[in-house]
Amino acid sequence: QVQLAESGGGLVQPGDSLRLSCVASGRAFGGLSVGWFRQSPEKEREFVGAISYGGQSKYYGDWVVGRFAISRDNAKNTAYLQLNNLRPEDTAVYYCAARPLLQNYFSDYGDQRVYTYWGQGTQVIVSA
Question: pLDDT tens track of the chain, all 128 residues?
């Protein structure tokens, strides 16, 4: 079993940056692929980005367009989501998810159904 805990959300102004963290416990983090998703009240949960077990491959939603960056530090059992140049439409609850997957390349990174473990989410509010 894996427990995921997100942190780093908050209230920021447009143009600001945030770094979200996802700390994993309960299983070797190095064997997990990690994804980030977000959900706002107006939308269904959508894919933000994913990273392979060793960090060799990173995938992003088409709409990300370089503003966000995903990374991980397996020594700290932590994945990160760097959010830059935030906009009001980025307001959402951000979730990290994980699944056991020792592959660098995979095509189903955006499918929520393939992720086994989920965190509780961290709220990001972007408002002037």
Answer: 899 999 999 999 999 999 999 999 987 899 999 999 999 988 999 999 999 999 999 999 998 878 999 999 999 999 999 999 999 999 999 999 999 988 888 889 999 999 999 999 999 999 99
**Contact of 125 with 13, CB cutoff 8 Å:** no
Greatest Cα pair distance in the chain: 42
C-alpha distances (whole Å) from 102 to each of 13, 29, 31, 61 are: 38, 11, 6, 21
Cα–Cα distance for residue pair 100/20, rounded to 1 Å: 21
Nearest to 59 by CA among 38, 91, 36, 32: 36
